[in-house]
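Entry 14: structure prediction run for dTDP-4-dehydrorhamnose reductase. Input pasted below.
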Amino acid sequence: MKVLITGAAGQLGRALKETAPAGITIHAVDIADCDLTDGTAIAALVSNAAPDLIINAAAYTAVDKAESDEQTAHAINADAVAALVTAHRGKLVHVSTDFVFDGASSRPYRPEDTRNPLSVYGSTKAKGEDHLRGTDLLVRTSWVYTAGGANFVRTMLRLMAEKDELRVVSDQIGTPTWAPGLAKAIWGLVAANAAGAFHHSDAGVASWYDFAVAIQEEAHALGLLDRSVPIIPISSAGYPTPARRPAFSLLDCSATRELLDDGHTHWRTNLRHMLRAEKHFG
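Run finished. Output C-alpha cells:
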C-alpha cells in the first residue's frame, strides 16, 4: 500500500515513517515539497503521488500565533483538508486536537461530543474536521511530544538548565502523548480499516505542572539534568496567553484501546522512553 504522509518533518510525521508496518511504501512530504496553502499544489501532489491512503499529519500548531495569523492557520488546518479530500478518492486519515473542545466537560471527551473551540487554532482544526467524509478517519490527540522535536518537554529541559525557578500552569488538565505511540495507534487503526472519529492519548491524567515535575524527576534520574529547581504551580490567569486553552481536555480513548488492545501505556512510562532517546540529541 502506498501512503502519502504530509507534515513528514514534524514530530508525528517522523514517527509515522519510523513505525510504518511492513508492506507500506511511504511518499513523505513537508512544506519544502508542497505549499499546503495552495490548493492547486495539493491537487498536483496527490495526482503525482497517486497514493492508496493519505495521512495528513501537517498542521499550523502555533496556538498563540494563530490568533494574529488566522488566514494562514485556516489555510493549513481547514482549506488544505478540503483540498486533500477533493483530490483523493481514497481514505484520508486526518489528525486533529483536543483544542476543538472547550474544557467545560466533567468527564473525558468522547469522539462524538459537541465541539466548542476557544481559540483560532481550535476553530480552524474543527473546520478541517468538517471536510472529512464518513469513510475517512479522524484521530484526535493531545499534548504531543517526541525526542528531537519542538515541544513542552524539550522547552522544560532547557529552562530547567537555565533558570533557578519555574512557574508552570496547574489548572489545565489533559494527557501528554508520545508521538511514536500515537503513530503506532494510527497504523493500527488503518490496519483495522477504521473510519469515523477516534481519540488517542497516553493513559493517565496530568496538568502542565504535573508534567513539568515528572520531566525534571525523570530527566535528573537519567542524567539529563545535573540539578533540580523549584517548580511552582500557578493558575492560567498568572500566565496569560493570546489564545485561550481548555481547562480540561482529557480525551476518552476507550474505543481506540478496545479496537487495538494497545495496553493502555501510562504517559510517564512513555516520557521515560522519550527522555532516553533525547540523550542522543544532547
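Notes: The mean pLDDT is 96. Will compare against the previous run tomorrow.
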